[in-house]
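so i finally got all the pieces together for this one. its three components total, 677 residues if u count the protein bits. some of the lines might not be protein, just check the labels. i wanna see the whole assembly predicted at once instead of chain by chain like last time, that was a mess tbh
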Amino acid sequence: MKTVVVTGMGIVSAIGSSVTANLQSLQNNSDGLSKPDILQTGHQFPVGEIKITDAELLEELKLTASLGITRASLLGIKAITEIFENSGKLADNANTAFVSGTSVGGIDKTEQYFDLFDEKAALRPYIQAQHPGYTTQKIAEYFGIQGLVTTISTACSSSANAIMTGARLIQSGRYSKVIVGGSDCLTKFTLNGFNSLRILSDEPAKPFDRDRNGLNLGEAAAYLLLEAEDATSDQRILAKISGAGNANDAFHQTASSEDGEGAFKAMNKALKMANMEAQNIDYINAHGTGTQNNDLSETNALKRIFKETVPKFSSTKGFTGHTLGAAGAVEAIFSILSIQEQQVFANLNYQNIMEDGLIPVRENRKHQVDHVMSNSFGFGGNCTSLIFSKHE
Amino acid sequence: MSKDQHIDFIKIQNNSITAAEGLLFQTEKQIDPFKFLGDAYKFFGITYPKFFKMDGLSKAGLIAAELLSEKVSIEKNTGLIFSNSSSSLDTDLRFQDSMKSFASPSVFVYTLPNIVLGEISIRHQIQSENAFFISEKFDPALILDYAEIQLKNSACENVLCGWLNLHNNEYDVFLWHVAGLEDLQSQRGQLLKIYATTHE
Amino acid sequence: MSDLHTELKESIIEQLNLEDMQPADIENNEALFGDGLGLDSIDALELIVLLEKDYGIKLTDPNQGKQIFNSINTMADFIEKHRTK
């Protein structure tokens, strides 16, 4: 099997519009939570909103509204542009595949314009936007990607699964370059939906805290360029993907099992594929949404895998909010930054240990990081764990 | 068809459910698609407590997987690779409609295409790998390629593959089973033909 | 049995898609969750919506639901005391 390396990254999230800006916010413990401002809604829950309007994105990317491009596509294009400006490798578009994860796709545009379709012909291109493959297709068209283009939709593990799928396309020799990641924007749809499930917090989320009371939604796009190690001409290899595992919790439509069986199996598979023991992991970027259910289940799964010696771990969702389908890719980038900077990032807002709980990283600090595990769990019981390693 | 390898499949199209051996269940054309699935559920004597609370995709997927499981082994090491073109659009629209008054949590839960994978996993206690791809049309090559990678990686021992689409009240469901790598090679080239054959 | 009890049973059957059930199949003091009617956590959330939609009652703490949704009797008592419509 071929070795898969990461040679480029691009991100736009509530804590910054580039990898560097995101790193600065992580290092300064500066979160991106605010009241919704660009999203027109009556809800006042804190969200991780990117303070750039669609009109500003269109202008920056030199696109026009008549093309019917959704916010998730615009954010995705912006994030991928960063990869190519940094590594200048758009040239090989014929042999590049694109695997993108999303959960809501273009729902933002259909909810915004639904009542106007009859009177305003110019808005009609957006009618197709609710089709989830549409957001991916628009990004692929912008970059002229001619290889395999596909969308993965497995809820909050979508982009982690996109990374796993891309890595496999390379391992099996089908492609030597794959752009992987995900994009999801804030919508009234998800805000109302998560509110109906009563798992939105009206304050900044406190992952792994005894008094945690829910999550904050966020929006982001994050993409990585994966290449076969033996085929890359890039001198700047950022990290290696050494393991990936996926398992189903087979417990409930939305809730995780208390013993975290799915998470346990996913982490185990990732370690097995990486040919590693649990103690090789130096840092875990946890799923840690801040809901009662997830954090308890994940804590139990971590204790089962790592026994008495759980490595340093934190949830970075206190910075970005939970970016749903994009979260796996956002946190993959944070994991790689952790390797590059030899630093672990803070689990914001944590104060008190939960019963039989674990204490996450409270302050960002220097730490030797050779191998990072990144967890992403989605509704439908879909659990994914990825392992990124320092490239020697 | 005689020289072709046998493929275990279940197809739900045009108010009928068919398998390799022929028609299993059929109703009149005008019937509401949800009523059709409910009638099929009762006809086959399936028992799954959540059935009538689920969305259309999950109902169709659960019935198809149940019928396949009577012929092939669907167990904890069975991988699931499903795909469709319209994601959970039908349920998304229902949820948007509920938002006009009171957003419905039980509808919101199903506004993701992979929930059906969760339901099938719960029903058959499968804790193996799941994937859900959104593709423009039924693309057996993509699914078989991915199944091949899964099997070669020993991520699972056999795979339940599916195209599961619900759009404008029309079901287009085609689930089939890949028992192993050998099975997989012989299936290439046959699937589109079986999928396109209509049993009237 | 009061009208409210019957009304509640009818709306529960409809809202929670309890196929082939009649109001008479649900006992007033039967447990709605667990071993009784077998409702689950998502059904509980749907009952919170039902309280607000039909009776104008807003539950701020979802944990309150555990006692209120114990049975048709407990639900009816709570609604009688707090209804705004």
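The mean pLDDT of chain B is 92.
Chain B touches chain C at residues 38, 49, 51-53, 101-106, 109 (CB under 8 Å).
anyway lmk what u think
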